[in-house]
Design a protein that fits this description.
By secondary structure, this protein is an alpha+beta fold. It has 4 helices and 5 strands; from the N terminus they run ααβββββαα.
């Protein structure tokens, strides 16, 4: 479990806009991912949101940088994306470049977050069946 102060301290290293967007995004994630755990990963310079310590139990990540802010999705290649928000060419992950308050509050982004949560729940069900 991460403390609010440690995440705030981490995010305060970035410019004001990245910091402000990240705070808003944290609120949207906690509102749309019931009982999610927030974990600060300093070596990777990101904040992970998930339901356990394993990579497979992760739903998404906030990735701040000097250039801006991204919301990354584990297994993003498998998520429905009718609004064409997802970017990236990795084998499993995809991300959304966060560029405005309006985008953070958008129905499209919230639908994508809820889809990622549903995908997580289905992965966990599949793992239980295999066990």
């Amino acid at each position: 479990m991460t403390t609010k102060d440690s995440v705030d301290s981490f995010l305060s290293q970035y410019d004001e806009q990245v910091y402000a967007y990240a705070l808003q995004l944290r609120g949207v994630l906690s509102a749309n991912l019931p009982n999610v755990t927030e974990q600060l990963d300093l070596p990777a310079r990101m904040i992970a949101y998930g339901y356990g310590q394993k990579y497979a139990e992760m739903v998404c990540t906030i990735i701040p940088s000097k250039k801006g802010l991204k919301l990354g999705f584990y297994k993003g290649v498998d998520l429905p994306d009718p609004d064409k928000l997802l970017e990236g060419t990795g084998k499993t992950s995809r991300y959304v470049e966060i560029t405005s308050d309006k985008q953070i509050k958008s129905v499209a982004l919230k639908k994508l977050i809820k889809s990622a949560w549903s995908a997580y729940k289905n992965r966990m069900k599949d793992q239980q069946v295999k066990s």
